[in-house]
Every structure is written in structure tokens, then in C-alpha cells.
Amino acid sequence: MIDLNSTFFIQILNFIVLMLFLKHFAWGPLLKVMKDRSDKIANNIKSADEDRAQAAEMKKEYETKLAAARTRAQEIVQEASARADQETRSRKDATTQECEQMKEQARAQIQVDFEEASKKMKGQVVSLSLLAAEKLLAEKMDEKADAQFVSRFIDGLSKEKLGDLSC
Question: Which of 32, 109, 117, 151 sits at a 20 to 30 Å CA gap from 48?
Fold first, then answer.
């Protein structure tokens, strides 16, 4: 059986004092450190969740801005392409118009040159005809002589009187 003597009660009292001492100086600070660490970990997790949410929000915002920038860049490229096409058409039209004007001027100049050449040629033909008629009238002979005379006359004409005409 259990013997209950005075040492037993002193041991129980010592045990209770030791427990109070440990609770006050060991368990209290140890539990406080563990609670602080637990709170710190909880705060870190909460902070990480907030940072993750903020990062996701920023990512979404950047993706939106990036999409807008891409859209704007595409618009700029399309506008530049349209302007280049318009400029090309404009220059092509201007060049075509300039060529048409040059053709018209060339046609007008050719017409003027043709009319001047025709007038000169008519004048030369008239002069040559009058000269030939004058010589024929001055020397009236028979047909054979007339043919010889015309041949001599034509052979005697210089290039200056005929121009570039060939006989």
C-alpha cells in the first residue's frame, strides 16, 4: 500500500511550485515565441497572398496595356501603309498627268514643225517649178531635148535647193 507521509506532500508541493515556476518562466515565454512565430507566418502567408493578388492584377493590367499597345501599333502600321499607298497613287497620277501634258506639247510642236516644213517645201517646190519653167521657156526644144534639159536641171540642183528630198 501507499504510505502517505510528510515527504509525499512536500514532493507534491515541490512539483506544483516547479510547474508554476516553469509555467511562468519557461512555458509562458515559449508559448509567446511560438504564438509570435505563428502570427508572423500567418502574416507572411497573408502578405504573400496579397502580393500574389496584386501581381495577378498588375499582370492583367500589363496584358491589357500590351494588347492596347499592339492594337495601336497595328493601327499605326495600317495608317502608314494607307498613306504610302495614297502617296504612291498621287505620284503615279501626277506622273501620268505630266506625261500626258508632255505628249500634248510634243504633238503640238510636231504639228507646228510639220506645218512649217510644209510651207517651206511648198515654197521650194514653187521656186523650183518657176525656175524649171523659166529655163524651159528660155530653151524650147523638142521632146528629147526637153527630157535631157530636165535631167541636167535635176542633176544640177544642189542639196540646199532640194533639202533632204530624193529624186
Answer: 32
